[in-house]
Amino acid sequence: MADERCNSKLKCHEVDLYFRPIPFRSVCFVQLLVVVLLSLSAIACGSKAERRSIPAEVEAAINAVSEDIATDRYEKIYREASELWQQDASLEQSISTFKTLKTKLGKMENRTVHSATEQHNSGGPLKGDAFMITYQTKFEKGQGMETFTLIKRDSRWLLARYFVNSTALK
Fold first, then answer.
1. C-alpha distances in Å from residue 80, one per residue of 66, 85, 113
2. Contact assessment for residue 99 and residue 90, using Cβ atoms and an 8 Å cutoff
3. Could you give the CA distance from residue 94 to residue 55 in angstroms, rounded to a whole number?
4. 152-170 pLDDT, tens per residue?
């Protein structure tokens, strides 16, 4: 009788284990599902990519604009900028903005790349190839973040937007 009781308990115990869900497998499945979904999301959003390096042509365009800013050639910047720049601001507004930046911040002393993002857009104002490069910049009178947005038109990189964020501008 004792053997029967033990055997029946053992069988019940075995049945219990057999039907009990295994939490480890469920967790692994969920983790695998999350990894797959994140991978698919990354592939689907491939039109916007963070860059480790900036192409030489983009860097050359930024250097040319920076040199023009440093030497007060604001009209040249306006004439050579993309149609987006010219739609957003008049020549007078552009000159006034650059003069204000120079008065409040002084000349740019040095900068380091904070981020560089390449985009391939099928529509919108930045249609086509675009680069957004943000720099941590030291000016004579303060620090700030500079963002250059360039778009490719007729195989040339043109300035579409230029933005400076600094507490020294307040």
1. 13, 10, 24
2. no
3. 27
4. 999 999 999 999 999 999 8
Angle 93-166-149 from CA coordinates, rounded to 5°: 60
Q: Which CATH architecture has domain 48-169?
A: Roll (3.10)
Q: Domain-by-domain residue ranges, the chain?
A: 2-44, 48-169
Contact 131, 156 (CB under 8 A): no
Quote the pTM value.
0.69
User: Residue 67 and residue 149: Cα distance in Å, rounded?
Assistant: 16
- At 97 the three-state DSSP class reads helix
- How many other CB atoms are found less than 10 A from the CB of residue 139? 21
Give the separation between CA 150 and CA 118, rounded to whole angstroms.
10
* Alpha carbons 55 and 3: distance in angstroms, whole number: 81
Round to whole Å and give the CA distance between 71 and 5: 97
Token duo for residue 114: 């904070």
